[in-house]
Amino acid sequence: MRRLGHLGWIGGLLNYWFLPSAARPYGFLWEADGRVVGNANLSKVEGFPGRWALSNVAVHTDYRRQGIARALVKASIDLVRNLNGKVVLLQADRDSPETQVLYASFGFRPLATRTTWIRRGNQVPTVTEIGLARKRRPEEWKRQWELAKVIHPEGLIWPYPTASSFFRPHGFVKALGLGEVRHWVWSEKGQLVGSLSARRRMEKESWRFILIVQSEARGRIEAGLLGLALTELPTRGSIVLEYPAGIAETSLKSFGFHPERTLTWMALEPK
Length: 271
Hints:
Elements: E1 2-3, H1 8-18, E2 23-32, E3 35-45, E4 51-59, H2 68-82, E5 87-93, H3 97-105, E6 109-119, E7 133-135, H4 141-151, E8 181-188, E9 191-200, E10 207-213, H5 222-232, E11 239-244, H6 249-254, E12 257-268
Parallel strand pairs: 4-5, 10-11
Antiparallel strand pairs: 1-2, 2-3, 3-4, 5-12, 6-11, 6-12, 7-8, 8-9, 9-10
């Protein structure tokens, strides 16, 4: 097994293709019979000391069930521990229970399970009811941030924690490369119970939606927030949305969203 960062241009090429652009690359490779048969990428999340993301743990089908994946994960955890990391995050496929069992054996605990939904095309949605959905007022950003911290303490955009800069009217969103952001909210009896934020992606006219809804309001207010946002945004490109698995699926499908994958966020605090 070798450190990915020690492989010169080959390691750099692998890191370029497999790691988030905002992360500092580390990693390990497993070699057998003169070729690379296993890989684990480890990224230090920029701007958040002690926070690491483990990704792309993969073993060639001919070499599975030989302890290679376990060795790669253990080496990654040991590296984070030696570098005084505070937490290691990863995403595990919900439909791969063996993978989740592997991670759980190291002490990784599940944080949330989310489905990624994609909407393509520029069709204008048919919106019949938006209920109490409305644009967020600038002074409401703190309430929206507080809601996000309670509902999604694990974070909103992988692998970052929930940060106030995403919601501030004049925060550091552009400095972080996150682009334009718009916000809508849903209030009941003076309390903020849901919000939808749209962040422009690098692709022209493409957006990432971040939908945050209190548990007691889930399945009831998502359609109104989505309908209002879709009627106000220039959506000629695609829209990506991650939302808790199994919730508001009918509403999402009615607006042209299609499920792509479901992942479980997991975390480990190295001892």
